[in-house]
Structure formats: C-alpha cells, structure tokens
Design brief:
There is one protein chain. The chain has 545 residues and is mostly helical. The protein has 22 helices and four strands. It has a two-stranded antiparallel ribbon with strand order 1-2. The longest helix is centred in the last third of the chain and has 20 residues.
C-alpha cells in the first residue's frame, strides 16, 4: 500500500482575553506554519486551474527568411502598387531607394532611360495627349515598382505604416521580435559561409554557386562580362509564377481581353454582354486602353504562359484559346509533391492541436525536401524572366480594371468586401459572361497569394541539407494561416479536400488531377450551364503563338 507523504509544519496557540465570554470557553488564535499552512490556504482558495500548452521548439535561422518572404510579397501586392503609381505619376514624389541597391538610383523617378520623371515632364508639356506614351509610362513605372520593392529584405513600407512591419510575427514565432532584430537575424542568415562562397546571399544559392561556378567567375556585374548577373545572387526577386497561374484562373486576363475586344468594336458571340461599354475620350481610360491594345504583340501570349506553367508546375489551362500544346518538359511531379506537403501539414496541425501530444515534424520535413527538389528543377531557361514579366502585366491589368471608369460600368456588389479593388469588376464580368460565376474571384486571389508565399519558402530554403525536424515544425507553425487558407480555397474551387486521407484510388486521382479539370465539372445545381473560363480568344484575334 502506497504511503502518503508527510506534511510538516508547526502548530501554536495564542490565547486572547475577550469580555463577556462564558467561563470555560477558549478564545485565541491557532498559528500554522510550513506545509500545513500551504495546504490549508490552497483548500480555502478553491479549485486550482491547470493549463496545458503545446511543446515549444527552439528558434531556427531560416525563420528570418520567412519574415522576409512575407514582407516582400506584401510589398509587391496590388494595394502597395496602386499607391506607388499614384505617388510616382500623380504626386510626383516617391521616397526611398531600391531594396537591393547601392544608393543609386536615388528615387523611382530616376528609373529608366529616359527616366520616369523625364517622360512625365515631356508628356505634360504636349499640346494634347494621344498615342501610347501614357501606357508605356505606366509600364515603365511598373518595372520600377518591381525593381524597387522586390528582393530579399525586411523593410518598412516606402510610404508610412512603419509600425506594422512585424505585425503578427510574434504570434507566428512564439517570441517577441522587433524590426531591428528581424533585420539582424536575416543578415546573419544571408552571410552564412557555405563552402567557398561567402558574402550576402541565400545559403541555397551559395550551394549552387559553390558546386557549379568557378571561383573566378562569381562576381556580379554587367551581362556582357564573365560572371553573374547583378543582384541575381545577392538579392533575388521574391516572385513565384503560381501567382499568375491562379490570377489567370480567376479570369483577370479574360476580363481584360473581353474589354479590349469591345473597345475595338469586335463581337465575341451572337450577344455581347458588354454592348453598353462606352469609354469616354475625355478621361484617361480610353487612352490607356488604346496603348494596351497597341502593346499586345509585346506581351506574353496565352500559349507562352501555359507552356511555362507546365514547365514550372505541370499545370495547364483548358479551353479553345489554349489549343494543343507540345511542351518538351512538364513538371508532372509538382502536384503530387505539393499536395502531399499540404496533407502532411494538415496531419501535423491535427496532432499539434492536442497539448498532450508531441506532433512529429519528420513527415513534413521529408515532404518539404521532396518539393524543394521538384521546383528547383524548373528554375532554368526563361522561368524567372517569364515570372517577372507576367507579374508586371498582371499588375497593369489589375490597375486598369480597378480604375474608377471601369468600376462605373462593371460595378460589383456594394456590400461584398474584397481584399483588392480589381476583384469586384472581375467577379461582375464572370457573371455577365457565364465564366463559372459560382467560383468567387476572392478564392483565386487567396490561392495566388498564399501559394506564392508557401512555394517561395520551399524554393529558397536550404532544405537539401536539413535533417532536423525542428525546422519543419517551425515551418508548419509559421505558415499555418497560409497553408490552411490555401487548402480551404482549393477545396472551394475544385471540390478536392487536401486535408483528408486518401482511402481509395479514385480519390487519389482527384487529388493529383489538373485544377482546371475540376473547375469544369459541375458539383452544385446551377440555374444556367457553365461556360469554360478560357473560351475567350486573344484580344486581337491573332493566331495563338
């Protein structure tokens, strides 16, 4: 029989004389000390609350990279872009220097030859503004925006809002952190010596340089000299092509094509829903759309974008305008690897929610390493050029669709909140054209934003040499909101829940099938038949290139 532990302590009695107390009555104070007094105090205070907390993990160096990814993807988002264009082209003032640069150029207005400022000055002294120059100035300002805001850094916004730089980071990291601390940790991570390569660069890229590029050819400089391109090693742009893929699935490009066809008085079918679209010549929209039409031959064609989607992710689009494709290489391993990672993250979150369970991060680590290898295989040829060009074109189209002149015609539902100003107009166009109107554009925007952040954390992380599951645990906890948001929006637009286990062959085929195929399948009763989202032809009716 188990023995009870002894309770030690001292007991004393102090008598007290009180008036009018009957004889034989004891009056005084009992004094308890030691363990006995503690026990009585606990009993008197009532029940004791006990709280269990999940196990903590030590900090890892790559957490600073994840902060930089969130910081830079927010910096190149459409809200910041729209504010940048207004300050640069309307107010003629934009402070700050590029993220990855020496002091020059001093401002975004000095970008380009002729510079942005010089082109504005020349445009504003003309007797009248006709032609495509205003549109080309918008394109140059967009390139300046990406050049100034892209890169590997943790910086406050270029115009105000400095207090929100580390907003939400403490909850993600599980510890307090300031902007200066985050910047110092990022610099320590980037200056890690890898083999014979030092200086400021991502450890992953240093391993590539150490293995492939001779020591005498590692200097960054002119593209016409031997060596590396300037800033490609030290400060790569934080862009991912999957952002353009999901924005295109959300019908932004089709919306712009439909507007441009109506602008040129070209009818798409027997009945054109945009018959009442008439852009007046007194406001800037007419001139900007004219420039957009004239610039069409210089933009990425639909088929060229789809070929790169296949090369990078094995993803494709379906519709008449896409036609038959013949890619040399298609990254068919991407969807299984990416969806396997998301499923392992869902399993980790389920286990990590129990404070009595030590969630295992090893399966997440292996999924991260597998996906890192798959997406690294596509980081070749035109991939990064196409990614940057596609983002610039996307920003310009979003800017045009979000303008007041377009909002006056494609007016969205006033009481439906959206994250960005172009979304209501695209949602209205989907309803007018019958392009799967039941699929909200906001979900495609979520897939684009969260998918880009997750894949950047996988692409640029030093996962090939990582064997500690602690880093995978930190990854899972840091990116919880993005991973869960991606899985939710993916289930909404495709009907495929990536968090549930695969119990039969058919479900496995659904999980790894093309998202565009799922979106073509009716899942809920609808009052009208659904039309393909990619039946719109090229804006100028050109033969697909």
């Amino acid at each position: 029989m188990a023995t009870q532990p002894n309770i030690t302590g001292d007991l004393s009695y102090t008598p007290t004389s009180l008036p009018n107390v009957p004889q034989g009555t004891l009056a005084g104070t009992l004094n308890l000390s030691g363990d006995a007094a503690s026990v009585l105090r606990q009993i008197a205070s009532g029940p004791t609350a006990v709280t269990l907390e999940r196990s903590a993990t030590p900090a890892t160096a790559d957490q600073a990279l994840w902060i930089a990814i969130r910081n830079r993807t927010d910096a190149i988002g459409f809200p910041r872009y729209s504010a940048f264009i207004h300050r640069l082209l309307c107010e003629r003032a934009d402070p700050g220097v590029p993220t990855c640069a020496e002091p020059e150029p001093a401002s975004a207005g000095s970008f380009g030859v002729p510079s942005v400022d010089e082109r504005i000055d020349e445009l504003m002294i003309r007797p009248a503004i006709y032609g495509s120059d205003a549109y080309y100035l918008l394109k140059l300002a967009t390139q300046a925006f990406l050049a100034f805001e892209g890169g590997t850094a943790i910086n406050p916004p270029r115009f105000g809002g400095a207090g929100s730089v580390t907003a939400g980071e403490e909850a993600r990291l599980g510890r307090p952190i300031t902007l200066l601390e985050a910047q110092a940790q990022l610099e320590a991570y980037l200056t890690t010596q890898i083999g014979t390569v030092g200086g400021r660069a991502l450890p992953y890229l240093k391993r590539v340089v150490d293995a492939l590029i001779p020591a005498n050819a590692r200097a960054e400089g002119s593209p016409f000299c031997d060596g590396l391109l300037r800033h490609r090693l030290r400060c790569p742009a934080m862009l991912e092509l999957i952002h353009s893929y999901w924005i295109e699935q959300g019908a932004l490009m089709q919306t712009m094509n439909a507007v441009l066809l109506r602008f040129q008085n070209r009818r798409r079918g027997e009945r054109d829903p945009l018959v009442n679209l008439a852009v007046d010549p007194l406001q800037a929209m007419s001139n900007l759309l004219w420039g957009r039409v004239q610039d069409e031959p210089q933009l990425l064609s639909l088929r060229r974008r789809v070929h790169e989607y296949q090369y990078a992710y094995g993803l494709t689009l379906h519709g008449k305008a896409v036609g038959d494709l013949a890619p040399v290489e298609s990254r068919t391993q991407f969807l299984p690897a990416f969806h396997r990672l998301l499923h392992k993250l869902a399993e980790f979150y389920a286990a990590d929610a129990f404070t009595t369970v030590q969630a295992d991060g090893f399966q997440v680590l292996q999924a991260l390493k597998d996906l890192h290898v798959v997406i690294s295989e596509s980081a070749n040829n035109q991939h990064f050029e196409v990614t940057r060009q596609a983002r610039a074109e996307t920003l310009v189209d979003q800017y045009l669709i979000a303008r007041n002149e377009m909002r006056a015609f494609l007016r969205g539902r006033a009481m439906v909140p959206t994250a960005e100003a172009w979304i209501p107009q695209v949602q209205t166009m989907k309803q007018l054209q019958g392009w799967a109107p039941h699929l909200a554009v906001s979900h495609f925007h979520t897939l684009a934003a969260t998918g880009e952040q997750l894949l950047q954390a996988v692409r640029w992380g030093d996962w090939s040499v990582q064997n500690d599951a602690t880093t995978a645990k930190n990854f899972a906890r840091y990116w919880t909101a993005e991973a869960r948001s991606y899985m939710h929006s993916y289930a909404t637009v495709t009907g495929v829940d990536l968090s549930v286990p695969i119990t039969d062959t058919r479900r496995a085929e659904d999980r790894y099938a093309q998202p565009s195929l799922h979106m073509m399948q009716p899942r809920l009763p609808r009052p009208e038949p659904m039309s393909l989202a990619f039946e719109a032809v090229d804006a100028l009716d050109r033969v697909p290139r």
